[in-house]
Amino acid sequence: MSNKILLLEDDLPLAETLKELLEDNSYQVDLATTGDEAADLTYENSYDLYIFDINVPEIDGFELLEGLREASDKTPTIFISAMVDVGHISKGFELGAQDYLKKPFFPEELLIRVNAKLSKSDALFVCGDFTYNEQKNEFKKADIRLSLGEVQQELFKQFYHNQGDVIDKDILLECLESPSSTALRVAINKLKQTTGLPIENVRGVGYVLETSRD
Q1: CATH top class, domain 125-209
Q2: Residue 42 exposed, middle or buried by CB count within 10 Å (0-12, 13-18, 19+)
Q3: Which fold has domain 4-121?
Q4: N or C: at which end does the chain have fewer Cβ atoms within 10 angstroms?
Q5: Angle at 208 between CA 203 and CA 210, to 5 degrees
């Protein structure tokens, strides 16, 4: 499955050039020309990378990323902008961007940076139709984003970091707000139903996620 990118750029000739280049390199690209349009797309879709111009109509790129970060959206972000003073560059990184590319630039330079960002975020845990992106702390089943509660996430991460190893029940009980053997059994069954993960009970010891890291 190819990585999906949201490109926010109101200069249409540049936007079309970048979109074509990225798609020619096997990326899926959604193009927005206003901040409002980009915000709507983030509500409707899940992306692997944002590329935001800053000075765009309606919501500017800074305000858009700030809102996304406040909503716990940790999608890696590259700013592209003609605003090249230190203050704007510093603000971009303070808001949570991973890169800032000054206009004008060669489109191929953006491609190099995109490849670098996505090669780091491309490592997914996959088990059946369930996937986990550790960098983004994102859970999906059949490509649909899952919303796991805090307890579910804590339990999952214990299994994720100890794949193939039996985890003592006492360790898993620490993930619960009100620990008990019954509550743990219910919580693990709920996690299994939500994710489809092959978590098995080892009687008298604990639980194990029987899968590889590959």
Answers
A1: mainly alpha
A2: buried
A3: Rossmann fold (3.40.50)
A4: C
A5: 125
